[in-house]
Design brief:
heterotrimer, A alpha/beta (about 375), B mainly alpha (about 290), C mainly alpha (about 280), A: about 375 residues, alpha/beta, D-Maltodextrin-Binding Protein, domain 2, seven-stranded mixed sheet, three-stranded parallel sheet, B: about 290 residues, mainly alpha, MetI-like fold, globular, disordered N terminus
Chain lengths: ~375, ~290, ~280
C-alpha cells in the first residue's frame, strides 16, 4: 500500500463522526480526572520520625550544582562505604517541582524562605540537633531563625549575597550600581539569574522599593524594567560559574561565592571581580533539610554532621561562608582583599532577605516572571 | 499528469546513446555534488567532533590534546551513569516487546475487522504520531501525578509504549495489507483454527516487518529525551536525561563518550532493522503473489 | 469464529492501552487546564477559564507567533537545503544511492541533545569557528553565533532535516525519469522542466516532509533553551517552564491544549488536501 492509498484511506476514515467519537474518550478522561485522587498535603505526624545518624543506605542528594566540595563527597563515600547519588536543580521552583512530583530525596538544600514554606507544609523531617556532634560549632543565631522556629527541621548550610560579577579586563567602567548590567562596554554579554526572586527583587531595588515589594503597580514597574533589559542581555542563566569561567559572560548577576569558585577554573583569576550594588544587596542563607519521605534519613543526618565538621574545607571551595565558627577565619582569609565578597551573620540580621511570599503575592511574582521570560 | 509512466520506457543505456548532448549536465550535477558534499560535512562535523573529543586526553572542548580513553573509563566507573545506561537499555527493550505485541495485534485488528469501532480506533492510533513530544510529555506527566503514581522507570516505559504502538501498527499494517490471503484460507479450509492460522501462516509472513518495527521502536526509545524528561523519577534516569542535566549544570567531556556510545547502539539497531528483514525474508516461506510492500 | 470477531478481539489490547493511557490523559490535561494551584504548587481541579484567556494576552501571543514563525522558517530552509540533496541522490546516486541515503540519515541517529550540544561547543565565543576566524584575522572578540534566533532555527533545521529529505527522496525515486526527459523536450529549459514536471510530481513528498518537520518543531524547546537567548522563547519553553520552574500545571496544561488544538487543525487541513490529491491522481 503506497503513501497515496494510505492517505486516501486515512482521509476517508477520518470523518467528523469518528473524531467526535474519539472525543468521547476525552470526556471520559476528564470525568475520571474529576473524581480521581489529588495530592494531599501531609499532616504533622509525617515529620516526627525518629532518626539516628547512622548509615541506612545510599544518600539521594539534591542540591545546586557545584555547591559542595566534591572531595568531601568522595571522602564520605569512602569512609562509610555508601554512594552519594547526586541530582541538581538550578532554581528553587525547579527544586519544588521535583519534590512535588513525588521524587524521594534524602537531603535537600533549600533557601531560607523556601525552607519556611516546606516547614509549614509539614514536608521536612524533624532533625534531632542533639545527635549532631558538630552542631555546637554553628552560630547560635541559627538556634531560632525566622524561617524555622526552634530550628527543628533545618540546619544552616551557607550564607550568601547577590551582586554583579564582571571581567575587569573587558569592562572598565563599573559604577557600583545594578544598572551596570547594561554597561555598553559589555557588548551584550551580560546575563541575569534565571531566578524569579532574584530577578524581580533586583528590579524592585532599582526602582527604589523594598526587595519583597508586591503591590501591583510596583510589580508592573519591575516587569517593565526587566523587559526593558532584555535587548541588552545575552540570556537568563543561573549557570553562573560556567558563564564566567568560559568567557561567555562579561557581566553576570550572581551570588558572591560563584566568583571565587569560577576563579579556580581560569588562567587569570584576578580578572574576575565582584561588586555589591548601592541600590540594595539581597542577603540570605541556605539550609540542609531532610524531606519527610526520605528513604535514608540516617545517612543524611550523618552526612550533615560530616560536612559541618569539615566546614572550612567546604567553604573555601564553594566560596560561600558556612555558619560555623571553625570556618570563619579560613574564609575571611580567602576574601581578605575583597570585603564585598564577605557576608556575615550581622549582614544577615541587617540586610534585606527574601520573604516567603504568600497567596496573591506569590502568584503575582510567578505571573510577572513568566511574562518577563515570554515577552 | 500520471505518475505511473505510460511513456515508453527505453533502457537507460540506449536512451543515452540516442541523445546527442547533455545527458548528465541537465541539472548540473557538479553543482549538486558540491551541495551534497557541503551538506555531508555540515551534518557530520558535530558528530565527528563529539567522537573525536570523546578521546581527548584533556578537558578542553576546543583543543585536541592527545588520545585517551579516560572519559570512557569515567563513564564506566560512575555507578550513576552505568545505572542510567542499564535503565535506558531496559526501558528500550521493554518498550520494544510491549509495543510490538500490542501494535502488531492492533494492525491485524484494524485491517481485518470490519466493525463500527475500527474507524475510531484508527483515529486514536494515528493521533500519537502527530503529537509533538512536549504534548506527549505533559499528558503523560499529568496522568501519573494526578492519579498519584510515583515517577520511575516504569512510568517512562509506559509512556514510551503508548507513543510507540502507532509506529509498529503503521509498519506492520503496510505489510499485512499486501499479503496474499489464499494461503490463510487454505489453512482454514484444512481445519486450522484462527489462532493457529495467525501463528503459523500470517506471523511468519509478517515477521520482517515486525522485526523492523521492533528495532525502530528500540532505537526511538533509547534515544528519547523529551518524553523521558517529563516522566522520569529520581534514580535511575535514562541517559538522555542525564546528558541534559550535564549540559545544564556543567559539562564534562564524559558527555562525548556517552554520545558516542549511544550512537553505536542506535546505529546498530537501525542497521539491523534494515538488514535483518532482508536477510530473513529471503528464507522462502510461502509464495507471495501480489504487490510487495514495505 | 468469524474473521470479524477474531480480528476484533485482536484489536482490543492495543486499543485499550491507547484509550487508557493516551486518550484519558488528554482528558485529564483538559480538566487540569481549568484548574488552580495550591501553596505547594499542587494542581487542583477548579473552573478557571482565565488560564486560556491569559494565553491570548498580548504578552504571550508573541511566543506563539514566534514558535510558528521559527517552525515555518525551519520548513523553508529544510526544503531549500533538502530538496537538492534528495534530488542528487535520487537522480545521480546510481549505485551509491542507498549508501548516500544511509550517510544522510546516519547523523540523525545520534541523540538530538548531543548534536545540539556539539554545536554549542563549535559556535561558542571561544569555540572552534571563532578560533578559526580569529586566526584568520577576521575578528577580535569573536562573532556571536549563539543565543540568537538564527542559532535556534539552525539547530531546528539541523535536528529535523532528515524528516524532509526522506519523503522528498521517496517521491523523487518513484518518479519516472523519462518524464524529465519528456519535459526537457517539451519545455526546453531546465528551470521550466523543473517547474512543470519535477516539482508537481514530487509536491506531495515536499508537503509530507513539511508536515513532518513543522509539527515537532513548533513544540520544540531544547534548541531554544540551549542555543537561544532571552528573546527566542518558544511555546515549548513556556510549557516546560510551567511544569519544571513556575509550578503552574494548569496554565501549562492550557498551553498544551491550545498547541495540540492548533496542530490538529493543521493536520486535518493537510489530510484533506492529501486525500484530494490522491483522488485527483487516480483520475
Amino acid at each position: 500500500m503506497n503513501d497515496k492509498e494510505i492517505e486516501r484511506w486515512i482521509a476517508a476514515r477520518m470523518s467528523r463522526r469518528d473524531v467526535l467519537r474519539a472525543g468521547g474518550g476525552l470526556a471520559l478522561g476528564a470525568a475520571m480526572a474529576g473524581c480521581g485522587l489529588g495530592n494531599s498535603t501531609p499532616d504533622e505526624s509525617a515529620t516526627t520520625r525518629e532518626i539516628e545518624p547512622e548509615i541506612d543506605g545510599d544518600l539521594v542528594y539534591f542540591n545546586w550544582a557545584q555547591y559542595l566540595n566534591p572531595k568531601l563527597i568522595k571522602q564520605f563515600q569512602r569512609k562509610y562505604g555508601v554512594e552519594v547519588r547526586e541530582s541538581n536543580f538550578d532554581s528553587m521552583p525547579g527544586m519544588m517541582a521535583k519534590l512535588r512530583s513525588s521524587n524521594r530525596y534524602d537531603l535537600i538544600f533549600p533557601s531560607a524562605e523556601f525552607a519556611n514554606r516546606l516547614v509549614s507544609a509539614n514536608f521536612l523531617l524533624r532533625i534531632p540537633r542533639a545527635k549532631l556532634a558538630a552542631i555546637d560549632d554553628v552560630y547560635s543565631f541559627f538556634d531560632d531563625p525566622w524561617y524555622d522556629p526552634g530550628s527543628e527541621h533545618t540546619v544552616p548550610y551557607s550564607l550568601y549575597l547577590t551582586g554583579l560579577g564582571y571581567r575587569s579586563d573587558r569592562v572598565g567602567a563599573m559604577s557600583g550600581s545594578w544598572r551596570d548590567l547594561t554597561n555598553p562596554e559589555a557588548d551584550g554579554r551580560s546575563y541575569i539569574l534565571d531566578d524569579f526572586q532574584e530577578g524581580i527583587g533586583m528590579a524592585n531595588l532599582v526602582n527604589g522599593h523594598d526587595l519583597n515589594a508586591s503591590e501591583p503597580e510596583q510589580l508592573e514597574q519591575a516587569k517593565d524594567y526587566l523587559i526593558g533589559l532584555k535587548p541588552d542581555l545575552r540570556g537568563f542563566s543561573s549557570d553562573t560559574i560556567t558563564n564566567m569561567a568560559s568567557g561567555n559572560a562579561w557581566i553576570q548577576h550572581l551570588w558572591n561565592g560563584d566568583i571565587i569558585n569560577a576563579r579556580y577554573r581560569v588562567d587569570d583569576p584576578d580578572t574576575l571581580r565582584f561588586q555589591q550594588n548601592r541600590e540594595g544587596v539581597p542577603v540570605g542563607s541556605d539550609v540542609f533539610a531532610i524531606p519527610a519521605n526520605a528513604e535514608h534519613p540516617g545517612t543524611a543526618l550523618l552526612f550533615i554532621d560530616f560536612i559541618l565538621e569539615r566546614s572550612a574545607e567546604n567553604a573555601t571551595w564553594t566560596g560561600y561562608p558556612m555558619p560555623t565558627r571553625s570556618s570563619e577565619r579560613p574564609y575571611a582569609e580567602l576574601v581578605a582583599d575583597e570585603p564585598e565578597l564577605q557576608v556575615t551573620v550581622e549582614d544577615l540580621e541587617a540586610g534585606q532577605q527574601f520573604a516567603d511570599l504568600e497567596g496573591q503575592a506569590r502568584e503575582d511574582w510567578d505571573r510577572v516572571w513568566t511574562e518577563v521570560k515570554a515577552a | 499528469m500520471s505518475a505511473t509512466g505510460k511513456v515508453a520506457r527505453l533502457p537507460l543505456a540506449r536512451r543515452r546513446a540516442t541523445r546527442s548532448s547533455r545527458p548528465r549536465d541537465f541539472d548540473r550535477p557538479r553543482f549538486l555534488r558540491v551541495v551534497i558534499g557541503l551538506f555531508l560535512v555540515w551534518t557530520f562535523a558535530p558528530i565527528a567532533i563529539v567522537i573525536l573529543f570523546s578521546f581527548n586526553s584533556s578537558r578542553s572542548l576546543q583543543n585536541f590534546d592527545g588520545f585517551s580513553t579516560q572519559w570512557y573509563d569515567e563513564f564506566l566507573a560512575s555507578p550513576q551513569l552505568r545505572e542510567s545506561l542499564y535503565a535506558s537499555l531496559g526501558i528500550a527493550v521493554a518498550t520494544m516487546v510491549l509495543a510490538t505485541i500490542l501494535g502488531t495485534l492492533l494492525a491485524y485488528g484494524l485491517v481485518r475487522a470490519r466493525n463500527r469501532i475500527t474507524p475510531v480506533t484508527n483515529v486514536i492510533m494515528l493521533v500519537p504520531l502527530v503529537v509533538p513530544e512536549i504534548v506527549a510529555g505533559v499528558t503523560a506527566l499529568l496522568l501519573f501525578t494526578q492519579i498519584g503514581i510515583d515517577l520511575s522507570v516504569t512510568t517512562i516505559t509506559i509512556a514510551h509504549v503508548t507513543f510507540s504502538i502507532s509506529f509498529v501498527t503503521i509498519i506492520v499494517r503496510g505489510r499485512l495489507v499486501a499479503l496474499n490471503r489464499e494461503v490463510e484460507e487454505a489453512a482454514l479450509d484444512l481445519g486450522a483454527t484462527r489462532t493457529e492460522t495467525l501463528r503459523l501462516v500470517v506471523l511468519p509472513e509478517l515477521w520482517p516487518a515486525i522485526l523492523a518495527a521492533a528495532l525502530i521502536v528500540f532505537a526511538l526509545s533509547f534515544d528519547d529525551f523529551v518524553l523521558s524528561f517529563f516522566t522520569t523519577g529520581e534514580s535511575p534516569q535514562p541517559l538522555p536525561v542525564r546528558i541534559y542535566s550535564s549540559i545544564r549544570f556543567g559539562v564534562t567531556p564524559t558527555i562525548n563518550a556517552i554520545g558516542t556510545l549511544m550512537l553505536i547502539v542506535s546505529v546498530t539497531a537501525i542497521a539491523l532493522a534494515l538488514a535483518l528483514p532482508r536477510l530473513l525474508g529471503r528464507r522462502g516461506g510461502t509464495v507471495l503473489i501480489g504487490k510487495d510492500a514495505v | 469464529m468469524s474473521e470479524r470477531r477474531f480480528a476484533g478481539l485482536m484489536l482490543l489490547p492495543g486499543a485499550a492501552w491507547l484509550v487508557l493511557l493516551f486518550v484519558v490523559p488528554l482528558g485529564i490535561t483538559l480538566a487540569i487546564s481549568f484548574g488552580v494551584t495550591d501553596e505547594l504548587g499542587n494542581a487542583l481541579y477548579a473552573w478557571k477559564p482565565e488560564n486560556y484567556s491569559r494565553i491570548f494576552d498580548p504578552l504571550f501571543a508573541p511566543v506563539l507567533l514566534r514558535s510558528v514563525g521559527y517552525a515555518a522558517a525551519t520548513v523553508v530552509l529544510c526544503v531549500l537545503i533538502g530538496y537538492p540533496v534528495a534530488y542528487y541522490i535520487a537522480r545521480f546516486g546510481g549505485r551509491y544511492k542507498y549508501l548516500l541515503v544511509a550517510l544522510v540519515v546516519l547523523p540523525f541517529l545520534v541523540n538530538y541533545l548531543i548534536r545540539i550540544y556539539a554545536w554549542t561547543a563549535i559556535l561558542s565565543d571561544e569555540g572552534l569557528v571563532n578560533g578559526v576566524l580569529a586566526d584568520a584575522g577576521f575578528t577580535d572578540d569573536g562573532v556571536r553565533f549563539l543565543n540568537t534566533p538564527w542559532a535556534v532555527v539552525g539547530g531546528l533545521v539541523y535536528g529535523y532535516m532528515a524528516f524532509m529529505i526522506l519523503p522528498i527522496y521517496a517521491a523523487l525515486d518513484r518518479m519516472d525519469p523519462t518524464l524529465v526527459e519528456a519535459g526537457k523536450d517539451l519545455y526546453g529549459t531546465r528551470w521550466q522542466t523543473f517547474r512543470h514536471v519535477t516539482w508537481p510530481a514530487t509536491f506531495q513528498g515536499v508537503l509530507a516532509g513539511s508536515v513532518l518537520v513543522f509539527l515537532p518543531t513548533v513544540g520544540d524547546f531544547v534548541s531554544a533553551q540551549l542555543l537561544g537567548g532571552p528573546d527566542t522563547y518558544m511555546v515549548g519553553n513556556l510549557i516546560q517552564q510551567q511544569f519544571f520552574d513556575a509550578s503552574n500545571y494548569p496554565f501549562g496544561a492550557a498551553l498544551t491544549t491550545v498547541l495540540m488544538g492548533f496542530l490538529l487543525v493543521f493536520m486535518l487541513f493537510y489530510l484533506r488536501s492529501a486525500g484530494r490529491a490522491a483522488e485527483e491522481a487516480r483520475l
